[in-house]
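Dear colleague,

Thank you for sharing your sequence with our group. We've completed the structure prediction you requested, and as agreed, I am returning the results in plain text so they can be pasted directly into your records. Please verify that the sequence below matches your submission; if there's any discrepancy, let me know and we will rerun it promptly.
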Amino acid sequence: MFILCFSITILLRCINVESTQRMIRIVGLSATLPNYLEVAQFLRVNPEMGLFFFDSSYRPIPLAQQYIGISEPNFAARNELLSEICYKKVVDSLRQGHQAMVFVHSRKDTVKTAQKLVDLARRYEDLEVFNNDTHPQLSLIKKDVMKSRNKDLIELFGLAVGVHHAGMLRSDRGLTERLFSEGLLKVLVCTATLAWGVNLPAHTVVIKGTQLYDPKAGGWRDLGMLDVMQIFGRAGRPQFDRSGEGIIITSHDKLAYYLRLLTSQLPIESQFISSLKDNLNAEVALGTVTNVKEACAWLGYTYLSIRMKLNPLAYGIGWDEVIADPSLSLKQRALVTDAARALDKAKMMRFDEKSGNFYCTELGRIASHFYIQYSSVETYNEMLRRHMNDSEVIEMVSHSSEFENIVVRDEEQNELETLVQTLCPVEVKGGPSNKHGKISILIQLYISRGWIDTFSLVSDAAYISASLARIMRALFETCLRRGWCEMSLFMLEYCKAVDRQIWPHQHPLRQFDKELPAEILRKLEERGADLDRLQEMEEKDIGALIRYTPGGRLVKQYLGYFPSIQLSATVSPITRTVLKIGLAITPEFTWKDRFHGAAQRWWIIVQDSESDHIYHSELFTLTKRMARGETQKLSFTVPIFEPHPPQYYIRAVSDSWLHAEAFYCISFNNLALPQARTSHTELLDLKPLPVTALGNNIYEALYNFSHFNPIQTQIFHILYHTENNVLLGAPTGSGKTISAELAMLHLFNTQSDMKVVYIAPLKAIVRERMNDWKDRLVSQLGKEMVEMTGDYTPDLMALLSADIIISTPEKWDGISRNWQSRNYVKKVGLMILDEIHLLGAERGPILEVIVSRMRYISSQTERAVRFIGLSTALANAGDLADWLGVGEIGLFNFKPSVRPVPLEVHIQGYPGKFYCPRMNSMNKPAYAAICTHSPTKPVLIFVSSRRQTRLTALDLIQFAASDETPRQFLGMPEEDLQMVLSQVTDQNLRQTLQFGIGLHHAGLNDKDRSLVEELFANNKIQVLVCTSTLAWGVNLPAHLVIIKGTEYYDGKTKRYVDFPITDILQMMGRAGRPQYDQHGKAVILVHEPKKSFYKKFLYEPFPVESSLRDQLHDHFNAEIVSGTIFHKEDAVHYLSWTYLFRRLAINPAYYGLEDTEAEGLSSYLSRLVQNTFEDLEDSGCVKMTEDSVEPTMLGTIASQYYLSYVTVSMFGSNIGPDTSLEVFLHILSGASEYDELPVRHNEDNHNEALTQRVRFAVDNNRLDDPHVKANLLFQAHFSRLDLPISDYVTDLKSVLDQSIRIIQAMIDICANSGWLSSSITCMHLLQMVMQGLWFEQDSALWMLPCMNNDLLGTLRARGISTVQQLLDIPKENLQTVIGNFPVSRLHQDLQRFPRIQVKLRLQRRDIDGENSLTLNIRMDKMNSWKNTSRAFALRFPKIKDEAWWLVLGNTNTSELYALKRISFSDRLNTHMELPSGITTFQGMKLVVVSDCYLGFEQEHSIEALVEQLVI
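Please find the predicted structure tokens below.
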């Protein structure tokens, strides 16, 4: 294995184990090496065990070597003599029946030498020696030879002579190799590439001359010994020859040189310096080298560093330098520094000489990604301009150093002249006699698909075409990154022209040239029929245009395949300088895999109409499924400047199809921008207030500090001594929670019977508040507190007695909808709204609705509710305060910089188009940030996904190990560590904790998560890598916060989207520990194009806008059901209480309001209400008359179960009287509540695997659909399958959690429709969800934890199939039933299940003069030892109470008359009215159904009871 500059980088990455911590085994193969020990040292080979060196004496076939020197001084005579000697040696070999190979040193010389050998054979009448006529395969193979375009190959074949060089087409080279190996060629004249690249031996090998031209040096050089050895290695065929012959013919003066090389071979030298710049740039772009120190260490792994020390003179190092610096570290540093300076000058990276740091640039990344040489980048920097024409672009590409070996040959000139005239539509600068002119011609020829006769031109054209596409792509990316719109689009056209070999000026349908006849395409071009015109024409008109009637249909068909999309956009001003653009992309073409593949990529570009500047660009991927489906939506922000340009243009340009583009114009003529009115509260220089100001010893004991901080001091009086509403905007970590507690303490002092409601947007925040206040407010003040989240729903008594209710917005929305009948809602005296700036986020509408409703309730009950809003610093605090009813005296909006612990923020940009490699490149800078900013203090690293937590932690461990401090982040002794590890369940967490790095994400179980939090809080581990939810949920501040990437994968849109600014601020807010740090530090690692955006807006926050408008349907429906809205006027009045109403007047353009006058606003609201009502009516949720609106059964169920109106509408359309279990499962999975279920990268593959293992089929074309995934998760749950990855376990919990209310809603719909069969089937579905079993297919006995196959078989043999039957067996008889199985285990499990006895009695009643029948029902729990009503469901993730349905129906007619849902602990008395007007009671039954246990149904005949009553 010889060390060449192109392969050394690959070896370096394998050898550099310290940085990767991954052992890669390297096996080096080589011819005999003179300095094999040094190569072994470079490869890190153990010389005792891994080094095997065999010299030439081990050659399997002995080699006879001849060295011939020519002393003739005359050039022409010397060449003639060289050919004569070569001929004689070849003929001697042929006469002995051997084949011969002649090695020459240029492609041109191969043909000249071959022809010279043939001429000499004619002269000496030796042609019979070259004859191959007797070969048996001659006639067969001759046909293949005649197909070749290479005239020389065909001509020489008849004389059994062949040529071979790298300039030949691959097919011709392969043919030549086959002919020689099969003996049809006796002599092969070739270049040295054959010796290296192809294992094609011959008996005799002749090296004809040892001088070769070096185009880089511009002169001649000697053939290297490595080449000589490799060529001689081809002499002798192991299976056919007993010996081989190697002959070298050189000049006499070089004879001694080659003899000396053979006997005492010169060592191999490194060529690495020549490509040091390119390789250094690649490492910087990769992220493995970030500074001079690391670059020197990287260089230390090279073969160059080994040879420099052993032979310094060869590398320009004087002995004085060696004496002064024996390790040559200064020389290495100089090499690195010089290369870095050159790269910095070329803008391929930024080199900070003071710190020695390297920073990758977009240009450097582009050069590395597209394998563009440093010298080419220098050329492009010089020649690339904002505006260029076709000839200038092609000339610039022709100057690329990739083409520097192309030479101009005299014999090519005539053909080049002809080609310029016929096939080059663009001007050729310099003409065909110029090197760059020749390259320009060949570039144009490639695009024109021209035919070339001269073989050297064929070779050069193939060589140029191999690099052309990547060079064009690199230039396009460069223009795009520079923000040059016109030039970017121009270069993209050329990228596609090269890819498709079609000129941009040719007809777009030429891209179907394999399908459409050339004559049709020619006529379309002649008639000037562009795509738009053809789209508007009928088939017959197109046929008439091209004068070929059948062609009209064909053209129309392929027009349908041509990629076409329609754009529409909405513009919403966020501030006076930022616009939010919502872009809708509608595909309008027929997808065909043959043309479009799996996906089509489109560049979305937003440009200024005047300055030709790109304000936004992104690559949008349109998949086959998206093309068939609905309109795709993108959202992004762009800047706008004063004075406003007349318009912006949005372009969507196909990445692969010429002329496939769409255009949309955004006009700014009537765009109303919001007024800038950010006002901040000054932080007064007040003396910190002591906690004794509370004037209550019990209250003072709640706090473990002596004085309030400056913000708390300033607002203390308003909160603690007044009833005023307050809006507090302050940075995270400012003590806002304690400020809210002051308002709570005031309420406890003044209105102790009133309740506090604390609304937190996330369950994690609710949990944190619960834990904090449980220890302080509950235990020390004796207050009652309840939690309301998706995990917990307290009962009515708990809510009535609670002093503090902590809830998520959704839960409080659901409870407060029926506020008229719920007294505890009316008894709210204080409402604390944490993180109220999330009003503009996805769940903001719910927050907006509950505040608006509570203010409305307050106005109706005339009981004041105090509102305390807590937020980060706000841009439009005044609007929010106005909506909350906060007066000027209660508004505090402090600047983001006002923090108890000052924050130092560093924003670093990282290039890289693709997310995962970019995240990977951030790991080393993250480690460097820890070492620089927080080497010993706690560090939080926020990442976007669970997978990234693991990958980041593992890389940090590697970097620490390469610094020889693998456990630098660990802060506990080994014994403690082992004890901790024994408690950890998650394998990845166990691995990272050993090195002092914790993981934190929703996929961990509660125990592991709590353990990690505790370890980090107590400084046992220094680094915690977590997902963004930790920023909100757990108050774990750190000295340093690193935000590694600001995007996350949105499963719904299948793309990476940006975190909201509020999330970034929240993460930053965790930096700085109030009691420990003088200041905190935050390092934000972002995508390079977004760096300036974050620099501007981190401290200049966006105004909070309302997002209620798009989610009005469900909230209107709820208010209609509750009776708040009866008429359209009520709905408009309801909207006047919302934040949306406040913002409409201030930023009308954001909401699509054009006329801000009173009449225009009223019209807008009326239209909004009318459209919403109509949608609700279409979905079947409300019924409208001329002047009123009233709820329907579907609307009432949607409101009751907190479901989307879309979901219940879908239920109403799909559920029927006899719906099967399979259909119910599909309906359940199709609920819009599962729209947000994430389908991550490659999860469609996991879903495909699950489809093979589940009972019911799903749509295999939609495996990346969240609803299909939900279906598969349900079926996997029922079948008790092992889920493919841990993420699926968490997803299943979420799916099951939501399913309860969805199924209960489906049951209510069935019951209200009177469908008995569907109701019972749906109840079975709920039982399946609770128990993780299939109804009927699985035995209900599997609900018992102790159940196994043997016991199941025993019980089945005795006719026992349900737990109910087992419960009826007396304990003393159980053993005889179950055989050898331990009775105590079974009895213990049975105690977990209820044994219900139902007693019925019919009673006649006279109601309003009508005789009716009432069914009295008494239910008793017979097993008194089951003292809890908690359901026993091991496979259901949440705690749930047992409940029962009483179903009154007719099993004969499948009619359902009445349904009642009940729950009880010991006994229950209830009644149901029998339907009046029924003539027969035959088949009427009361069915008692459990909502959580399979096989617990009881059927009781009503017919028998009626007969008894009559008797």
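Summary note from our side: Residues 1-7 have pLDDT under 50 and may be disordered.

Kind regards,
the structure core
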